[in-house]
Every structure is written in C-alpha cells, then in structure tokens.
Design a protein that fits this description.
alpha/beta, DNA polymerase, domain 1, 2 domains, two-stranded antiparallel ribbon, 9 helices, globular
Length: about 220
C-alpha cells in the first residue's frame, strides 16, 4: 500500500463485497424450470454473475441481445431477481470483520458498482450495510459507467477523500481499469466471479488478493 491509512476504501459489490451468486443461480434455474429446462450446475452460472442479467440470459438460454426473445427473458430475469434480491445473498465470509477493522481505524468505505440502484439500494439495506457505507454509487448516478472513473471520483467526493490516496477493490478487469483511470491504488480479488481466473494477473492491479483474509492483510 502507498499508505497504511488510505483516505477511503471503495469496493465493487457483486463478487467483491457480497456473494450475490446464490440468488442469481436460484433465479436463473427457476426460470429454466418454468421453461421445462433442467437446472444448470451452480459453478457454471457463478462464473458469469459479474456480467449481470445479460450474461444470465446467455448462460441460461443461449440468447444474445439481437434475438427476438432476448428482451422478454432479460425483463423476466430482472423482475424475478428484484422480488428476491437478498434471499440467499450474504457478505463474503470474513468481510464483516474486514469492514469493522476499517471502521475502527476510521477509514471510510464505500461501494461503486455497475448494479442499477433499483437492486443495489434494497440489497445494501437488507444486509445492514446502508448505515455503514459512506457512499453507494450506481450507474444511475453517473453519465459513464466503469471502466470510466466518474463513479469513483463521485464516491470520493461524497466521502471527502483524495482519490490518489484511496483504494478500489474489484473482481473484474473493468474495476481495475476504472481504479487505474482514477489514479487510485487497485486490488483485484481472485475469489470473485471470474470467468478466466488465470487472466487476473494480466489486469495490472497493484495487488491481487486470493481470499478475503488476504485482502484484509493487504488493507492492514
């Protein structure tokens, strides 16, 4: 770390701070069941969770956005997910202790996600994080989503933190790119929803954390 007391620590949401995969898996397999299709293995779906509903429709039904039935499936998936956004979703094991450590050291933390506010806000509320996080920035709040740095700059502004002394943690190449574009220090987490884990080393993150405990040590 540039400093052992960063001005702020910002996290991506899905696959970094919280494990949303169980609810994505549940919703997609429920939809497949409605269409008379067998359930897919959890691991097969889990890898693509970071890419959102579009990836779920591709994985579950083999449809791309130009297919005539794509929009119906996409809308149905989002409606199903919104109805049960935090049924099985939890903080990753060890993450609550990491957040408590930041709070005890008076280091503010926030969330910068590409997840729309209609899902992110109720999810953060349901997990008891709304009162704890100093910023929640979604695509609805900015003109350009990650990897553009606008959302990271906005979160730092809300927190009153200097981006050059802040840290961004994510499980997707676009997270690391956004952090670099904001001139922040970056940590890639290998425990997240990564389609090709071997590519993480190529993302040019300042650090790579293999587990939440490893991440906690990097942030100490």
């Amino acid at each position: 770390m540039k400093t052992n007391h960063p001005s702020a620590v910002l996290f991506d949401l899905d696959g970094t701070l919280i494990d949303t995969a169980p609810d994505f898996i549940r919703c997609l397999n429920e939809m497949r069941q409605q269409h008379g299709l067998p359930a897919l293995p959890a691991d097969h779906i889990r890898r693509s969770v970071s890419n959102g509903a579009r990836a779920m429709v591709r994985v579950g039904f083999g449809l791309e956005p130009d297919h005539p039935d794509y929009l119906n499936k996409h809308t149905a998936f989002l409606d199903l997910y919104e109805a049960g956004v935090a049924v099985e979703t939890r903080l990753f094991e060890g993450m609550d202790a990491l957040l408590q450590s930041l709070e005890q050291r008076e280091i503010p933390w926030g969330i910068v996600t590409n997840k729309p506010v209609r899902f992110a806000e109720p999810l953060v509320q349901a997990l008891g994080l709304a009162e704890r996080c100093a910023a929640l920035v979604c695509p609805d709040h900015v003109t350009d989503r990650k990897p553009h740095p606008e959302a990271l700059f906005l979160a730092c502004k809300q927190i009153g933190a200097d981006p050059e002394h802040a840290v961004y943690v994510g499980d997707h190449e676009r997270d690391i790119e956004a952090g670099r574009n904001a001139r922040m220090q970056t940590i890639a987490v290998r425990y997240g929803y990564i389609e090709e884990p071997e590519t993480v080393d190529l993302w040019q993150a300042d650090f790579i954390a293999d587990t939440v405990n490893h991440l906690a040590k990097l942030l100490q």
